[in-house]
Amino acid sequence: MESVAIVGVGLIGGSFGLALRSQGFAGPILGVSSSGAIQAALELRAISARSTLEEAVESADLVYLAQPVDRILSTIEQLAAPVASRVRRRPILVTDAGSTKFRIVQHASRFLPPNCFLGGHPMAGKERSGVEVAEAGLFQNRPYVLTPGAGFSHPFEPAFRKWLNVLGTRVISLDAAEHDRVVAFTSHLPQLLSTAIAATLESASDPLLSELHGTGLLDMSRLALSSSSLWSSIIATNRECILSAIAAFSTELEAIREAVERDSLSTSFVRANTFSAALRK
Amino acid sequence: MESVAIVGVGLIGGSFGLALRSQGFAGPILGVSSSGAIQAALELRAISARSTLEEAVESADLVYLAQPVDRILSTIEQLAAPVASRVRRRPILVTDAGSTKFRIVQHASRFLPPNCFLGGHPMAGKERSGVEVAEAGLFQNRPYVLTPGAGFSHPFEPAFRKWLNVLGTRVISLDAAEHDRVVAFTSHLPQLLSTAIAATLESASDPLLSELHGTGLLDMSRLALSSSSLWSSIIATNRECILSAIAAFSTELEAIREAVERDSLSTSFVRANTFSAALRK
Q1: Among B119, B120, B1, B114, which Cα is nearest to B61's?
Q2: Which of A26, A176, B83, B279 is the most exposed place for a label (fewest CB within 10 A)?
């Protein structure tokens, strides 16, 4: 794995480039992105050169798709012809950093030659987007899911996994559908609840609400700063799992509402304490 | 206001003592609390001496009730006789730091002489409790609600307000019922939602849920670490407002659930973005 191309040089793509460089990756890091992102990424040294998608497939060993999910799906279609041509000559590993995995892996198996796509998801992020907020340490100590599927093997896979370890991630191999089910609870549900609480307070149209609060409301509304453009394709590609997670939450909230009426909240608090403490171990 | 007594020397009471000292308050700061809390508070210099409630009323100009809401209510009853006796000789100002105000103010007007109780609520806290986590800067840049009620006046009130300013708080005078309505949305609802999401994930009983998450879940579950013993009396004294806040949230969540089904989330995101950005201005 001597050269890398990053498609979509935003928070995640830019952080991947910065992380590789800061850990001693010496090869070229090409960037395929909008002019503004490329300019900023070159200045930050997150990439070493600008490239087209076709040139990237021609020269890179690893193509890293770090776009929103809907854009990853269309990039995979665009990659079909150049990747098919490239693998007849030299191996190439295509991977992605999309927030959902089942649809992306399914799309790759339809459009790309077998054994050249490895789904991935770095469980790291910020409420702000763009290469300007990229950080070399973004992936450090964070889980990094890979969804190789049964029988997957690729000559560059060991090197890619080695770099993920060097970057300080905790690599976890998982079935793509299982990944989507889990993140519906641990990532998509928290996002929608943060959006829901901020929208609830906005609807109340009372200036006192943004004046009289403790730090707890800041925590609970941070994710609500996220952009809907990023989230619409996450939701579109994980709808059933997200609806299940909302249903489970609604059941729990209804139990809490009834407990508020009856003055008997402690069981929910005890279970919530247990989970939250375990999360911090 | 030459001497202060803090009743309940935990996170809030201890932080009040530390803050006064760090800003140059030179008089005695008595502590009325459990032996363990008194010992720790003396070592941290959050208080200067231990006292009984009766001695505190005898010698302090300001009595600061920093207990959970249910304990504040019973302390107010205990204060009835000694405060009535004291005010016949010298003025004394009793204030509190309870998370709800209407019931406390109502209780004080029933048990204490007129014009000697001023309800208060520093909008600051932590998910951990106890004087061990107290901080001199806890109240800095945080709102501090006072609920004086119509016609309230007290010779020590200007000095108390001056000290709250010196401590760096933003003092806001508000009707007690209005305070409770606002904090139901900005404090009690966020707490119950954090508890609900953590309890939802605990119920799923899947070890992957505490392994595969981003930093967003840590934000959303931090309040869930709070103790139910503190919250049960907050809920018991603000039930109707909390039920209204839960109802408003449930309406918003149902709209989001329907939008997930229909792929049309952006209006909730836009409104949530607006509120969350305003909160950070």
Answers
A1: B1
A2: A26
Contacts of B278 in chain A (CB under 8 A): 210
Of residues B209, B214, B248, nearest to A185 (C-beta): B209
CA distance B82 to B97: 21
Minimum Cα–Cα distance from B122: chain A residue:
A214
| Other beta carbons within 10 Å of A64 | 27
d(CA B244, CA B186): 13
Residue found under tokens 């009426």: A261
Q: Which residues of B234-264 are buried (b: 16+ CB within 10 A; e: fewer)?
A: bbbbbbebbeebbebbbebbebbbebbeeee
The rounded Cα A221 to chain-centroid distance in angstroms is: 20
Kindly list the residues from chain B whose CB atom is less than 8 angstroms away from the CB atom of residue A225. 273, 276-277
User: Is the Cβ pair B218, A279 closer than 8 Å?
Assistant: yes
The dihedral built from the CA positions of residue B62, B68, B71 and B77, taken in this order, carries a sign that is positive
Residue range B79-124, pLDDT digits in tens: 999 999 999 999 999 999 999 999 999 999 999 999 999 999 999 9
**pLDDT tens string B256-279:** 999 999 877 778 899 999 999 999
The parts of chain B modelled with pLDDT lower than 50 are none
Please answer yes or no on whether B212 and A182 come within 8 Å at the CB atom.
yes
Answer whether B269 sits within 8 Å of A226, measured CB to CB.
yes
User: Contacts of residue A246 in chain B, CB cutoff 8 Å?
Assistant: 253, 256-257, 260
What is the DSSP code string of A164-176?
HHHTT-EEEE--H
Distance CA(B231)–CA(B125), nearest Å, equals: 13
Closest CA to A53 of A72, A25, A27: A72
Distance CA A197, CA B197 (A): 13
Give me the residue from B189, B204, B219 closest to A222, CB to CB: B219
Answer whether A45's CB lies under 8 Å from A19's CB: no
pLDDT of residue B265: 78
Please tell me whether residue A179 adopts helix, strand or coil conformation. Answer: helix
B118: tokens are 């001023």
Mean per-residue pLDDT, A68-75: 97
Q: Residue A172's closest chain B neighbor by CA? A: B212
pTM: 0.92
Residue pair B126/B95 in contact (Cβ under 8 Å)? The answer is no
Average pLDDT of the residues of chain B = 95
Looking at the partner chain, which of A220, A252, A257 has a beta carbon nearest the beta carbon of B190? Answer: A220
- Sheet holding B49-50: strands in order across? B49-50, B29-32, B4-7, B62-65, B93-96, B117-122, B143-147, B170-173
